């Protein structure tokens, strides 16, 4: 079988260009099957840009399907086109417990007082070991404390609700829970912004192979989050900050992770 020349490859594409564009644009239309792919319910308006296949879900099934993939980009049909949806921001709660190990501090059937939500600033004072703020009204002793984190992943920048383990009472324990969930905190005092291990590995490879600076890498993640309006993402590079030179360190499985990425990711509205 003879090899095709470059011109022959291009001619093959030109002959099929129209049918290719039709199939690409087909993904932007509402599917003819309007029932939920999971429960077969009628109110199926949500789809995922990162899941394989063309599934469409109702709100409840969409949230349930992404409990193990909380950093996927969800879109909702608004009657005319698919637009970005914040359904996971408002409905999904990520549990950070000592899975697969049991919590070391309490029996499984014990009831303990939970701590209050974390402060809204990365610059807040560090929790002293054993410090336990007062319990917020409306919470129960059966639930863990909650807070909202800004999470930087390879698929974008997200706000997610976090439910902490019962035993977390100090900043060291919060950081431990984050690291066990493969999330690296931007602050070790009171983390409110974290990076997934995956995005840190991607930055390491981009810096190694493509000489990508931390500022440019964060700009790319911002574009992935909101291509039309990247300034509306939860965090972004500060305009009055020049990233420090890259200094490499080794942290467990993440080799050559640069702390400069953590500095660039901070912004006044998120920290």
Question: How are the elements arranged and paired?
Answer:
Blueprint: H1 6-26, E1 46-48, H2 59-65, E2 74-77, E3 82-84, H3 87-91, E4 93-96, E5 146-153, E6 156-164, H4 171-180, E7 183-185, E8 193-196, H5 197-209, H6 214-225, E9 249-251, E10 254-257, H7 260-265
Parallel strand pairs: 4-6, 5-8
Antiparallel strand pairs: 1-2, 2-3, 5-6, 7-8, 9-10
Summarize the structure.
With 271 residues, the protein is of the alpha+beta class.
Describe the structure in your own words.
The protein has about 270 residues and is an alpha+beta fold. The chain has 3 domains: about 25-90, no CATH class; about 90-195, no CATH class; about 210-265, no CATH class. The protein contains 7 helices and 10 strands. The longest helix is centred in the N-terminal third of the chain and has 21 residues, at about 5-25. The model is unreliable at about 110-145, about 240-255 and about 265-270 (pLDDT under 50).
Describe the structure using short key phrases.
271 residues; alpha+beta; three-stranded antiparallel sheet; 7 helices; 27% helix; 17% strand
Low-pLDDT segments: 108-143, 238-256, 267-271
Strands ordered across the widest β-sheet: 4-6-5-8-7
Which term fits the overall shape?
globular
Helix/strand-derived category reads alpha+beta
Q: How many structural domains in the coordinates?
A: 3
Helix and strand succession? HEHEEHEEEHEEHHEEH
Largest sheet: 5 strands, mixed
Strand content: 15-25%
Summarize the amount of helix as a percent range: 25-40%
Can you give the mean pLDDT? 76
Number of strands: 10
Name the assembly state: single chain
Radius of gyration: 22 Å
**What count of helical segments does DSSP give?**
7
Termini separation comes to 61 Å
